[in-house]
Amino acid sequence: MQIPQSSILSTVRLGKIFSNTVATYKYFWFISILQIHAKKENPRISVWDIVIRMVANAWYPIHYFRLSFGKSDSLFDIVMELQRITHIPIDANNQTIINGLSETIDDGRIRGLLNTLTLNVPYRFLSPWIRYTNDLNVIRRSQTLENGCLYSLYKEDADFYIMLNPAWDSYLHAHYNILVDFAYWNLTLFLQTRNPNVPAIPNKLIRPEVRNSLTKQHNYWDMVMTIGGPIRCIYTNQLLYPKEYDLDHFIPWSFVCHDLLWNLIPSNDSINSSKNNRLPDLGYYLPKLASMQHRSLQVMLNANKEPTIMEDFVSLGHSAKDLAAMSQEKFLELYERTFNPINQIALNMGFETWKY
Q: Using alpha carbons only, what angle is made at residue 213 by residues 295 and 296, rounded to the nearest 5 degrees?
């Protein structure tokens, strides 16, 4: 992905900011600067404000999706420890995290953790413009805006801040969305190599403000129950009736990051809070899941009903009709081949097993 070019700015150097990157710091540093600059006119930005926002931006992919940032990246451990100290919810939005950390930054433990993020990235981020030798040298040269660098650095005791180069102001505002996408695109490539078996990484970097509606999935299961009668929750064994149930992501949404029908089943309304983001015990629940899904397909097709949502099953490698025609044993084997690897990868990432 390329950034917009300019004949008067050093955009070629800006396009190289993520070259030879071995940790996530630069991605979150740049994204945080862009976000802060978009909301204020003052070119002066506190380094503490930037690192707090870095933590906020990394909070959701670390806590909710459990993405690995790599062995050489301390941001992961810092974010985990800050949550343990502050008790900020793992699914909190960015502003809640920023407010919580800003209000407690005088706590020595919190300031010490945040200070780790100020040690290298403010200086080394400028490497495309200023070859790094030592911190003081970079500070001095940045203040001359050498090679048209993005910002200058100022560090005077506890007062540590950057001054954005005024020449970049209109460019950063005009191309904000493209530059943020550029950073996240590069971050996605970086994380994919460290999470090779994890699905949908691009969807796991930003906390969604609103989750997708499950109306079509609810309509499907309502129809199954209306035609075939009530079904039993695979977790509680209680009868479920149309419109009187919750939908459960069998493998948590926080891992699969999709709402495909073959991973969604009706459950008692108490299950989502009890099961939360944990993995169901496959040995106990997978046969029940397979049986319910298999029967639902047969009920719908025998009634000549085939809503478009049933096309979700094609991602399992078979049409809904082929799946309904399978024996119960063959259908279960397919579900075992599908769910066992997914479950194992999630376990490796730290997801816990659950049983009602």
A: 5
Q: Which residues contact 63 (CB under 8 A, 6 or more apart)?
A: 79, 80, 83, 90, 91
Of 197 and 321, the structure prediction assigns the larger pLDDT to: 321
Within this chain, do residues 71 and 102 fall inside the same structural domain, yes or no? yes
- End-of-domain residue from the set 180, 204, 228: 204
Tell me what the pLDDT averaged over the chain comes to: 93
Q: Of 23, 46, 162, nearest to 98 (Cα)?
A: 46
Is 27 within a domain? yes
Axis-axis angle for helices 47-63, 75-86 (nearest 10):
90
Whether 74 and 140 map to the same domain: the answer is yes
User: Could you tell me if 39 and 141 lie in one domain?
Assistant: yes
pLDDT at 70 over 90: no
Q: Are 58 and 24 in contact (CB under 8 A)?
A: yes
What is the pTM for the complete model shown?
0.76
Residues 103-160: pLDDT tens digits?
A: 999 999 999 999 999 999 999 999 999 999 999 999 999 999 999 999 999 998 779 9
pLDDT category, 336, cuts 50, 70, 90? very high
- Domain limits for position 228: 215-354
Same domain flag for 191 and 225: no
Whole-angstrom Cα distance, residue 48 to residue 54? 10
pLDDT for 20: 84
What average pLDDT does this structure show over 23-38?
Answer: 96
Total number of domains constituting the chain: 2
Using left for φ > 0, alpha for ψ between -120 and 50, and beta otherwise, residue 343 falls in alpha
**In-domain check, residue 1:** no
H/E stretch holding 337 reads: helix 328-348
Whether residue 152 is found in the same domain as residue 263: no
